[in-house]
Fold this sequence. Notes:
Blueprint: H1 21-30, H2 34-40, H3 45-49, E1 53-62, H4 66-77, E2 82-85, H5 93-97, E3 102-103, H6 108-112, H7 119-130, H8 136-156, E4 161-163, E5 183-186, E6 189-190, H9 219-222, H10 229-247, E7 252-253, H11 255-269, E8 274-275, E9 280-286, E10 289-297, E11 300-312, H12 321-327, H13 346-353, E12 358-359, E13 364-370, E14 377-378, E15 388-391, H14 405-416, E16 424-429, H15 430-435, H16 449-453, E17 457-460, H17 463-470, H18 474-490, E18 526-538, E19 541-542, E20 549-551, E21 557-563, H19 583-602
Helix pairs in contact: 4-11, 4-19, 7-8, 8-19, 17-18
Amino acid sequence: MATSADPARRTDHPGPSSSSAPSRRRVLGAATGTGLALAAGLPGTARAADLPLLGTYDVVVIGSGAAGMTAALTAAKQGLTCVVVEKAGTFGGSAARSGAGIWIPNNPVILAAGVPDTPAKAAGYLAAVVGPEVPADRRQAFLGQGPAMISFVMANSPLRFRFMEGYSDYYPELPGGLPGGRSIEPAQLDGTVLGAELARLNPPYLPVPSGMVVFSTDYKWLALSAVSVKGAAVATECLARGTRAALLGQKPLTMGQSLAAGLRAGLLAAQVPVWLNTPLTELYTENGTTAGAVVTRNGAPGLVRARHGVIVGSGGFEHNAAMRAQYQRQPIGTEWTVGAKENTGDGIRAGRQAGAALDLMDDAWWGPAIPLPGQPYFCLAERTLPGGLLVNAAGARFVNEAAPYSDVVHTMYDKNATAPHIPAWLIVDQNYRNRYLFRDVAPTFVLPDAWYESGAAHKAWTLDALAQGIGVPAAALRATVNRFNSMARSGTDTDFHRGDSVYDHYYTDPAILPNSCLAPLWLAPYYAFRIVPGDLGTKGGLRTDARARVLRPDGSVIPGLYAAGNASAAVMGHSYAGAGSTIGPAMTFGYIAARDIAAVAGA
Length: 603
């Protein structure tokens, strides 16, 4: 794999394969969705008009994730009446489960921290990362309105943000890339501001250790707490924060919990209702304009009307097995995603039934994952820390393990077309296990028996025995490890350039020299972890323009219909600019959509 300065490492390729993907997307975009609607047994518009009226608002928002709640808050502050309808019994969606990194160039938080960003740098970088597939006006809308969105959210909710210092852009060597990063994350929030509503916050993907207050940027150091003075100091500070909060009677929230709770608090103050357990059935159209939504509330169908617009922010389709099988490469399924379980593409299907075009349905916010019992584990630090390597079914390395996580899975799928690369295997030794946190298992501690019983983890006292356990050629695995060890000692990965990019060094061990990404495997026993194409959610959906308006296949606008977040095709295209490239655009286009509705309504 090339360095990140080389276009070969970028993910602005057209999709699963350069030969087949464009025609496939044209087919998907041109589809009308009529058959899908009939198969689902959705009521027609005439019948929908006869349903009980549940309410009439200026704006109806579908989904209570980052996109939906930002949109609703914006609409309310523009003087519009608004309701949020949410399928789940909790609010927050996938955003509440996440680390809540937010990638928005030139935002006021990073500029106040002295980050040397400029609009020209940001525009050049995003263009280089995304490529021409995403229209320039959409990219510019995101870059131009993102900073204002952050200022708006801070002015109209208890949310505050912190600079994720040192978390590099994913391709910092490209023009405009920043090695120090542009990402921010929510500051600590006291959950008591929500009162009883706190009980309805969607829980995190992984709970924070009891008694601690942990930010996303702390995890890189917590993984090193057994071998690093700074790591130990960060762990101590996390515990001290938890102690302070307990003494003050607070319920401290960080990451996605803070983001979702803060937005919900803003909605409470603005008196915006959020209807939980209220799934979308279809969009309601009157005289060619989207004028509301058919939902199920209290177990019965009903119509909620929208005077000026409907904003779809209902998430992706990661938990819809049929849609994943239809649109995405195999092997694929619903058991490898960490997205909210309610994300089954309801808004995308409803939009398609209403005539919307679809884009990027073949892609997702990918990342290598270990299919542990109960739920998959999305690997960040574990595959990057020195002393580990990824191999395919032939026992050979095939990728820079420290590359951006979406790149690693794109490579797995690309190479799997000609030779088995799914599953892959993360190989480490006992020296690695003695030094670093693995998921939530402390260094030297025994891994859970269930990991081994499920086949997600294997352990053996020799590489040959490990190879036999995971079904790869022993001689090939030995040769691969020997070559890797030789390069690790020299500090230069001549095969896949691990460590050439500043980004590669984020989740690594600075005590390891000459390359913090590379260390030899030498101490038995050895471990192998099954690696599959996991994701944070799908990234394809309704095609939108720079104003977040939903478009038909011919490029015309569907009046009254808007989309943001993973229900819409991502402004990042097939790539991933930096930490928070999901949430940053989701919030921004929710903000853009609501402001556009207000502007049109006031015209």
